[in-house]
Amino acid sequence: MKASVCSVPSSYQVYSNMEAQFAMTAGVLSFLLALATLASCNTEGDILYAQRLAWKDPNKVLQTWDPTLVNPCSWFHITCNNDNSVIRVDLGNAGLSGPLVPDLRRLRNLQYLELYDNSLNGTIPATLGNLTKLISLDLYDNKLTGAIPTTLGAIRTLRFLRLYENRLTGPIPASLGNLKRLEILQLQKNALSGSIPSSLGNIKTLASLKLNDNRLSGVVPLEILSLVIYGLTELNIAKNNLAGTVRSSGFRVTTIIQDKLKTA
User: Fold this and answer.
1) Most CB atoms within 10 A, among 33, 38, 138, 238?
2) Shortest CA distance to 98 belongs to which of 58, 134, 130, 148?
3) What tens digit of pLDDT does each residue of 227-244 get?
4) pLDDT at 243
5) Torsion angle (degrees, nearest 10) of CA 167, 172, 178, 180
6) What is the rounded average pLDDT of the residues 26-39?
7) Burial environment of residue 140 by CB neighbours within 10 A (0 to 12, 13 to 18, 19 or more)
8) Which residue range or ranges hold the Disease resistance R13L4/SHOC-2-like LRR domain (predicted)?
9) List of residues 6+ apart from 208 with CB closer than 8 A
10) Are 62 and 52 within 8 A, CB to CB?
11) pLDDT tens, 207-232?
12) pTM flag (> 0.85)
């Protein structure tokens, strides 16, 4: 008698069917993973292309940023990891102008954002605080305005934060004291105001702290002065409105650059 279509298959058939189902499942998962990787690469390309459209590029350094390519890894000034995900954007001294797009936050593996010595304007997007793998953020020597986002204090991997020679205003965020791996913090030659947050004294890895040529007031916290013990090699606080000093040319006292002390 022939088995009905509803009959229970033999153990061999069960094994074979399970094996086939496993192979099919593995194949589907592999395909979905490849599709997800491709979608991620395309997404990063879309983000960077949107940034290209937001900038003026008189020197045509972004000509290779072609959105029709599978991913941006072949573009000039872009570096990717082995998974074809963007880890570096190197566009220092490229003649670019225009704003930073908030969607840069979605470059989830970005480690270096090097955009120094351009004519970038607008504000620093608060969304950059989502770049949780960022090691270096170099936006110095531009025309950026507004406040330093407090969200930058969430980038615990950050080692270099250089925002000097812009037009930044407002206070130095106390949240920057959360950057326990920071080695260089350079905010000089802006229009920053308010007091120097004592929380910066939490950064025992700090080697260079430059806050000169701003509008800072109050006193220099002892917590920051104590960083010399841990390896701070340069502290420049000259040309501010700090108590106990006058606005004049700074001079070096061991590793500290400050205004001349008041004598009267």
Assistant:
1) 238
2) 58
3) 999 999 999 999 999 986
4) 85
5) 70
6) 45
7) buried
8) 101-212
9) 183, 184, 185, 186, 232, 233, 234
10) yes
11) 999 999 999 999 999 999 999 999 99
12) no
Q: Which amino acid is it at 47?
A: I
Amino acid making up residue 179: L
> Mean of the pLDDT values across residues 2-14?
38
C-alpha span between 133 and 107 (Å, rounded) = 10
Closest CA to 118 of 165, 168, 50, 184: 165
pLDDT bin (cut points 50, 70, 90) of residue 69 is confident
58 Rama class: left (phi>0) / alpha (psi -120 to 50) / beta: alpha
List Cβ neighbours of 92 (8 Å cut-off, separation of 6 or more).
Answer: 114, 115, 116, 117, 118, 138
3 state SS of 163: coil
User: CA angle, corner 226, sides to 238 and 154, nearest 5?
Assistant: 85
Token pair for 33:
């993973």
Q: Which of 198, 141, 197, 203 is nearest to 168 (CA)?
A: 141
